[in-house]
Design a protein that fits this description.
Shape: elongated
CATH superfamily of the domain at 3-92: Zinc/RING finger domain, C3HC4 (zinc finger)
Radius of gyration: 26 Å
Largest sheet: 4 strands, antiparallel
Helix content: 40-55%
Number of helices: 17
Number of strands: 12
Strand order of the largest sheet: 2-1-3-4
């Protein structure tokens, strides 16, 4: 090839100027300016000319004037997904900097409830004839978990970032125990219109994207290593591509120790549609209490349920918004009472709720009230349990609304 022909070849197809830091791509032979191709991949990680998908690029090349560079040319390799993540994190820096106070209060609310359980167990161990070993093991398990939440609260009070807080196994358990629902602080730049056709056409890409999230949630919820992650992923991908119905994947997850499978699937869909890495997703997330984590209470089992956005939690295909609002507005309220401290130990283990006895086993009602002597005692226990010099534990959750936990 002549020098003149080489000169024509050294023009960037995007800016139409001579290469500035020529950059080669992993899956095709096209060459661009580094800044030009970076701007392009922020929109879509494909080659602008041949549309092949891209994962890596190489720049700062050792260019030979007599030969056009290619992927074999020495240079610096960059991961496109990581570059996009850095760009999003920079964009989120200001808006995600505020402290996650709602999430911190959810941790405190859970700790108070567990201290109440601890108090009840200790009373029962004194007044019943059951084996001391049973109570000792139960009390030790609660104390161990409380210690995890103590460390989490220290991290909250030390001003740790959202991504650092939300990735911890302790917080992942709080999400499910306190029935929290994620939403995005800022609209994701690279969100995905997730549907069965897209997943079928991009199965490997979707699986690679969601696998870290699935591993993290499973390890946190089961307290075990996800050694059979491929089994989870195959079943989840079959559900995503409609080979499995909702109830089938729910049964699969329940058998493997996921106590909140509906909430797990909703959270997974929210992450998958964001198009973000875990670090960016966590930094861009905030959590609020969801009214119910069991969408099957609202919709028939065979309906397809899709997570849409932070304002509309679920959509049943073929159902109008007005119908969804109508169903939501006609949910029956649940009446409940919190037993006082003078009740017998047996009554402490059963809350009085407005449901049939068989339903009573499936629902746990918790309420914190500042006027209740028992909860004042729990607040004092909380202050004794945590070192007041190392953190400030707020009792502002004492006016929280009742939370309903549906055990699927």
């Amino acid at each position: 090839m002549s020098t003149q022909d080489l000169s024509k070849e050294r023009v960037c197809p995007i800016c139409l100027h001579h290469w500035n830091d020529p950059t080669v791509l992993d899956n095709c032979n096209h060459i661009f300016c580094f800044d030009c191709i970076i701007e392009w991949t922020r929109l879509k990680p494909v080659c602008p000319l041949c549309k092949c998908s891209l994962e890596l690029l190489k720049h700062r090349l050792w260019v030979n004037d007599a030969v056009l560079p290619n992927w074999e040319t020495e240079g610096q390799i960059e991961n496109i997904m990581e570059l996009r993540s850095e760009y999003e994190l920079e964009r989120l820096k200001e808006k995600s900097a505020r402290q996650p106070e709602h999430e911190r209060q959810a941790v405190i609310h859970l700790v108070k409830h567990m201290l109440g359980e601890l108090y009840t167990l200790r009373n029962m161990s004194i007044t019943t004839f059951a084996s001391d070993t049973i109570f000792k093991n139960a009390i030790d398990a609660i104390n161990k978990e409380l210690d995890e939440y103590k460390k989490l609260l220290i991290a909250f009070n030390d001003g740790a970032s959202r991504s650092e807080l939300f990735k911890s196994p302790a917080f992942r358990r709080v999400v499910y125990k306190e029935n929290l629902s994620p939403s995005s602080i800022c609209q994701p730049l690279f969100n995905i219109a997730l549907n069965a056709d897209y997943i079928k056409n991009n199965r490997d890409i979707v699986m690679k994207h969601i696998t870290p999230f699935v591993i993290r949630e499973i390890c946190a919820l089961t307290r075990k290593d996800a050694i059979d992650i491929h089994v989870y992923m195959e079943n989840i991908m079959d559900y995503f591509t409609t080979k499995l119905k909702r109830q089938q994947i729910v049964s699969f997850l329940s058998r493997r120790g996921i106590e909140n499978p509906h909430q797990f699937l909703n959270n997974l869909l929210h992450f998958a549609s964001s198009g973000q890495t875990l670090k960016v997703y966590d930094q861009n997330s905030e959590y609020r209490v969801r009214r119910s984590n069991y969408v099957g209470d609202f919709f028939p089992e065979d309906d397809d349920v899709l997570v849409l956005n932070s304002n509309v939690d679920v959509e049943v295909l073929g159902q109008s918004n007005s119908n969804r609002r109508s169903q939501s507005n006609h949910q029956s309220p649940v009446s409940m009472e919190i037993p006082n401290n003078n009740a017998s130990p047996a009554s402490n283990s059963n809350f009085a709720i407005g449901l049939d006895p068989e339903d009573n086993d499936d629902v746990e009602i918790i309420q914190v009230s500042s006027a209740n002597n028992q909860n004042n005692q729990r607040s004092r226990s909380l202050n004794n349990y945590f070192d007041p010099n190392s953190m400030d534990v707020s009792d502002s959750t004492s006016v929280a609304s009742p939370c309903i936990y549906t055990l699927d």
